């Protein structure tokens, strides 16, 4: 079992009457890439802000790198970096000047690190262009550069690929994978682009209405996201009875729109289609699919 | 903490309103002398500048104080770059004190240097008027740092609580104006002395420190000299020191509590 570097225990956060987090508990393993997944307002950013020390929890405990006191957490945060919301920066200053401000604040002696991170995020040619004139993609890149500046052991990234072009998304994904693989950086990431998360994450935390509704590893997700047949017929009710009673299919799901998914007997589709036909049902769709993170998200978060 | 102060200074130096303010304040004495007083620069001396221009120019200098102290202490709150300091593991106490030191440095020390440098400049150009005791003037200048500190603390408090340098500048100015107006009405209604200045917030304290009210004419070595009474009245000194330190501390304590306890969304 890998070392736990961050743990949140029974955390609650209340803004006035609004409950942003409701008894949230989870752990983050060293070397993992954790995807925080949930709809807008689910509580993802609140969790990240609590980890970053921007927001105080109403109840519960945060432990980072074995520290849980206020002083200890501040020390632990020196080993982490955060990019929360749209990157914060001085609108009238260039990318280099913004990074220089953060380098000074962190007390880093190595000025050369700024060139390194600018090159990594491909902002080395922006010159004196002011941050306020940057595109959203460039702002995101600067936010990531800022997060890389201190060579962190833990990176917490809130929507880091939002606004990036497809090429940029691939570059950032490969960069994060490389950091995780070669420098053992643990990454906590939230994104609405679930297809990207599925290419990156080793662990997933699903959150909705401030509650953790599921946590699972990529292996567990793969097991959950097995292949299935999507079946639509002129009489789905009768079809589901035939599939259950005559074909003996146990793992069957009827969707809200009446469509049927079967997770068994996939190699025996000829017998299934024959049984449906002989039972007086005409299939209109009979397609083999593979469930993915999006399907799992919809099922877990939206109950679809 | 020194790292954070260096970081704040780095961005404050690159802030356009700060640059404009500093340049304006550097040019202000020359403009005051040539355009307002109508005296050629070469004929102005340090003592004369103190008598004729210090009080007049102060009401422009107050804008400098608002701009410099609010921007140095809280510009990073407005664009949220201050959040990086929290996320980098600096304690909120250290962050607050770093910002307060920066706000006092820019809004009091630098401002005072810009406000008082003409005395040295015109002293070098035209000498020092013999009817004014330079030692007393130095004391008045040093003493005026205290009400400047009090006002800077008020600026730091408002801009910190409002989390915006712009709002801090605006609301501080409104508060200063409102208190002055309200006080004038109260003083009028209750027949209070004009001298009973609302020192808790008002800026007239600095003007009073730089206003020489009594003077006598003497003939020294055949030359008529107006000798100003520059010694400080304890009735002015004691409240200046006490109110400035007490109220300045209260403003900073209120800002500190807010900074330490409130979420930074």
Describe the structure.
The complex is a heterodimer of chains A (304) and B (265). Chain A has 304 residues and is of the alpha/beta class. Chain A has helices spanning 44-52, 70-77, 95-106, 112-120, 136-149, 166-182, 194-200, 218-224, 236-245, 269-278, 293-302, and strands at 4-15, 18-29, 33-37, 59-64, 80-83, 154-158, 186-190, 203-208, 211-217, 227-233, 252-254, 260-262, 283-290. In chain A, helix 4 packs across helix 5. The longest helix of chain A has 17 residues, at 166-182. Chain B has helices at 2-13, 16-36, 46-78, 82-87, 92-126, 134-143, 145-162, 165-189, 204-209, 234-261; strands at residues 215-220, 223-228. The longest helix of chain B has 35 residues, at 92-126. The radius of gyration of chain B is 20 Å and the shape is globular. Chain B has 10 helices and 2 strands; from the N terminus they run αααααααααββα. Chain B is mainly alpha-helical and 265 residues long. Classes of the chains: A alpha/beta (304), B mainly alpha (265).
> What is the annotated CATH architecture of the largest domain in chain A?
3-Layer(aba) Sandwich
Radius of gyration of chain B: 20 Å
Low-confidence stretches of chain B: none
Helix content of chain A: 25-40%
Which terms summarize this structure?
heterodimer, A: 304 residues, alpha/beta, six-stranded mixed beta sheet, four-stranded antiparallel beta sheet, B: 265 residues, mainly alpha, two-stranded antiparallel sheet, 2 strands, 5% strand, globular
Walk me through the topology:
The complex is a heterodimer of chains A (304) and B (265).
Chain A: E1 4-15, E2 18-29, E3 33-37, H1 44-52, E4 59-64, H2 70-77, E5 80-83, H3 95-106, H4 112-120, H5 136-149, E6 154-158, H6 166-182, E7 186-190, H7 194-200, E8 203-208, E9 211-217, H8 218-224, E10 227-233, H9 236-245, E11 252-254, E12 260-262, H10 269-278, E13 283-290, H11 293-302
Parallel strand pairs in A: 3-7, 3-8, 5-6, 6-7
Antiparallel strand pairs in A: 1-2, 1-4, 8-9, 10-12, 10-13, 11-12
Chain B: H1 2-13, H2 16-36, H3 46-78, H4 82-87, H5 92-126, H6 134-143, H7 145-162, H8 165-189, H9 204-209, E1 215-220, E2 223-228, H10 234-261
Antiparallel strand pairs in B: 1-2
